[in-house]
Specification:
Blueprint: H1 6-19, H2 40-46, H3 51-58, H4 67-76, H5 81-90, H6 107-113, E1 121-125, E2 130-133, H7 135-141, H8 154-160, H9 173-191, H10 196-207, H11 209-215, E3 227-232, E4 236-246, E5 252-258, H12 264-275
Antiparallel strand pairs: 1-2, 1-5, 3-4, 4-5
Helix pairs in contact: 2-3, 4-5, 7-12, 8-9, 9-10, 10-11
GO molecular function: DNA binding
Protein name: Helix-turn-helix protein
Domain HTH cro/C1-type: 36-84
Length: 288
C-alpha cells in the first residue's frame, strides 16, 4: 500500500469541488450561494458520507479512505477516469484496473443524466448493473443500486429471482430473455472467462436451465429495443421509446425512456413522477 499524500489529496478534492457547478450535478443554484462550486456538505451528500468525514479529508486530518469511499467521491465530483486514478494514488491506493468491469461511472454519461429529471434514465454497466438512476427510473424499477453481489446484474436476477420478469408483459419475456443473454455474451467475450462476466455465466449455468439453453445458442449482440412495453404495478402497461448512449469503450451506457407528447404513455410517465416510489409493489423494491 502506498503512502497517503494528505496535502495533495486535500488540495485535489478542494479544487475539484470548486470546479463543479451545482447545475452540473442537478442541484439548484440558490440566491445565497457564496461560491460557484459545490459546498462540502453537498459533496458529502452526493458521496453518501458524513459532512464531517469529508471536511476532515479537505483539512488533511482524515483517515485513509477505502476504495469504495474513493469511488463514491470520484462519482460525486464527476471525475474522469484519469482524475479518478489520480485520486486513488493520492489516497495511497492502487488505481482500479481499467481492463475489468468497473463501478466507476462515466463522467460524460453522468453529465447527461444530471439533466434528465423528467423521464426515467439510468446508467448501466456491461453486466446490466444499475450504477446510477434518476428519481423517475427508481419509481419505475425500484432502487436497483441497492443490490449486492451477483444480484446486482439484471441478467442474473432475470433468471433466478421470482417476479423480476413481471416488469415485462408475458408476450415479451422470451425476447427479453434472449436479449439479456446476448448482451452478457458480449461482456463475456470482452472481459474473458476469469472476469466477473465469467463468474456470472458459471453461476447462471448452474442455477438456471433456461439460461444454459440460451447460452448454448451462442447469440451475441448488444440488444436494446427501440420500443418496448413495461409494466408498472400501479399504472399498468407503459409503451416507451428507448434511447441508448454508450461510452467510447462500450463498458457503460445511458438508457433513457421517453414517450411521444400527448399520449397515454406520456401521461403515465408524468404521473409516475407524482407517485414516486411510494406505490411500488413490495416485490419490486430492491433487496426483497
Amino acid at each position: 500500500m502506498e503512502r497517503m499524500d494528505r496535502a495533495g489529496l486535500a488540495d485535489f478534492l478542494r479544487r475539484r469541488r470548486e470546479a463543479v457547478r451545482p447545475a452540473d450535478v442537478g442541484l439548484p443554484v440558490g440566491a445565497r450561494r457564496r461560491t460557484a462550486g459545490l459546498r462540502r456538505e453537498e459533496v458529502a451528500a452526493l458521496a453518501a458520507m458524513s459532512a464531517d468525514y469529508y471536511t476532515r479529508l479537505e483539512q488533511r486530518r482524515g483517515p485513509q479512505p477505502s476504495e469504495q469511499m474513493l469511488g463514491s467521491l470520484a462519482r460525486a465530483l464527476r471525475l474522469s477516469d484519469d482524475e479518478r486514478d489520480h485520486l486513488f494514488r493520492l489516497a495511497g491506493r492502487a488505481a482500479p484496473d481499467r481492463t475489468v468491469v468497473s463501478g466507476h461511472v462515466s463522467a460524460a454519461l453522468l453529465r447527461v443524466l444530471d439533466r434528465l429529471g423528467d423521464t426515467p434514465a439510468l446508467i448501466l454497466s456491461a453486466l446490466g448493473e444499475t450504477l446510477v438512476a434518476n428519481e423517475p427510473a427508481t419509481a419505475l424499477f425500484g432502487d436497483r443500486t441497492a443490490y449486492t453481489g451477483l444480484m446486482r446484474s439484471e441478467v442474473y436476477r432475470w433468471f433466478v429471482r421470482p417476479g423480476e420478469q413481471e416488469l415485462y408483459p408475458a408476450r415479451d419475456r422470451e425476447r427479453q430473455g434472449r436479449a439479456q443473454v446476448a448482451n452478457l455474451r458480449v461482456a463475456f467475450d470482452l472481459y474473458g472467462p476469469d472476469s466477473r462476466a465469467g463468474e456470472l455465466v458459471r453461476a447462471l449455468r448452474r442455477e438456471s436451465p433456461d439460461f444454459a439453453a440460451l447460452w448454448d445458442r451462442h447469440e451475441v449482440a448488444r440488444r436494446f429495443e427501440d420500443h418496448k412495453v413495461l409494466v408498472h404495478p400501479e399504472l399498468g402497461e407503459l409503451e416507451v421509446d428507448c434511447t441508448v448512449l454508450f461510452t467510447e469503450d462500450q463498458s457503460q451506457c445511458l438508457l433513457v425512456l421517453t414517450a411521444p407528447p400527448r399520449t397515454e404513455a406520456a401521461d403515465k410517465l408524468a404521473l409516475l413522477r407524482v407517485i414516486g416510489t411510494q406505490a411500488l409493489a413490495p416485490e419490486r423494491a430492491a433487496g426483497s
